[in-house]
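User: Modeling request: complex.
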Amino acid sequence: MRPVSQPHYHLTLGISPLSSLLMSEDERFGLDRSVRLLGPLPLDSGASLAPVEYAYETYGELNAERSNAILVCHALTGDQYVASTHPLTGKPGWWERMVGPGKPVDTDRHFVICANVLGSCLGSSGPATVNPATEQPWAMDFPVITIADMVRAQAMLLDHLGIERLHAVIGGSMGGMQAVSWAALYPERVASAVIIASAARHSAQNIAFHEVGRQAIMADPRWRGGAYYADDDPPSSGLAVARMAAHITYLSEAGLTEKFGRRLQDRPDGKKGAKTFGFDADFQVESYLRHQGISFVDRFDANSYLYITRAMDYFDLAEAHGGVLANAFKGSKTRFCLISFDTDWLYPTSESRAIVHALNAAGAEVSFMELSSPFGHDSFLLENPEMNRIVDGFLKAGEGR
Amino acid sequence: MTRLRPDLQIIADNIAPGSRVLDIGCGDGALMAALRDEKGCDARGLEIDPANVASAVAKGLSVVQGDADTDLAAYPDASFDYAVLSQTLQTTHRPDIMLDQLLRIGRQAFVSFPNFAHWRIRMSLLFAGRMPVTRLIPQSWYDTPNIHHVTIDDFRALVQDGKFSQEGQWFLSGDKQMTRGMANLLAEHAVFLLRG
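Assistant: Request completed. Predicted assembly structure:
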């Protein structure tokens, strides 16, 4: 662990051939970047965090006016690999439908930044990173963070990257919470905000589902108060159950019925579609969920899951504004674009509409549309030409200003 | 530049440059785009049809998908110079409340609607005894969104009841402007400018 008295930031020089080709000499830009910012970062809890470690990626070229930067904010279990291959899963970037050459967030035109969110586990400061005071992983000593803390930490990163003002900030789900918070916290730094399948606060139902997930993790005997890093024996069963429960909320009943119905798995003895009269995964939907749970634990840290779900549960943008959401956007010059999906029951259209009404009340420039898709909350990650058309038009219209 | 619908052209011609305009039932944003591009207006829209909203947003316009009957309440008083309601009044649940909303949100309001007392409609009802289907009222009675048909004289009475002042009136027949004489009989379409 580097002592805090080291230079302002520290860079990992893992420059891939692609990024060195695309980007200038500036080592702050490219794929697979990391940096340690001195901080301290004051947190909503009253604590502060120093240093703040960041893992992030940039795509495209920052123009001379530094006016073409777009910050992509990822969701609860997302990461900085928005448009490049995930190093652990080998899967393509999680939003390559939206971000890339010729896409609405166009890396030929825009300078795109995506950073692993504060509290996560893909290289940015979180419970799995090392506490400089003890030289041990933070575990549950990591301070409890909020969505606003995540955004303030991102602002520190943008300072480091030399970006004063964002052409746009865009995110879905928890990424949308960050995007809307960016516009509220730093209105002068955000020209346009795109908020997809999101909400300005967590509902009782949202909190309830998260609590089920947290209890599943903490009920796993291997969780051990979060101190499981030393022997590399994490509470995988608990985390997998948490993921299974959460995954249901990302889909829709119609989507599950269409994909699985009541269909049974083929049995190991070759018998097709027969019940085992036991408790194996008879139904295809059971098998699918188990797979989702098991594959998740390979790429995510259980304590990070606790911290980030807690941050989302604490989220209520109106709270700091006397309970009146419109006050969060008073005098805002930011352009807003909100999109919801008709089958999303996790962050339903009514939540987006509440933000739209608040923006209307504040006189802000806002576009909003509910799109039709059978895939529930996950729709924002899937192919949706209408979503792309809207985001593309919205971002292009902001470029003439 | 495609030509605007005649009633929208009248509205566009009579809106002061640089105004703040809320277009309720803005369709694909044709009027908003014209006001933005030709008059430097700050135009916002509300539209119920998703395909129209997508087209308007893709043009870079600020349009919210919503229902004029329920979503206008969120807009603050006097937040726009003009509220525009074109070809939509007769589709609202309570046109009288809609008028109140328009003149609460806008300092002035443009309202355009097809005139149900046009002679051709009267003849159709008189001689055929069937609900009229015309160029401006093209749907049959059972699937029309026009749930509150209105005549020019009805509208004038509503404006008087609401104690709004009428600042302009334009009448169209066959897409051409006509004089105001016997408008309730001869005009297919009317545009009114009101002040609260």
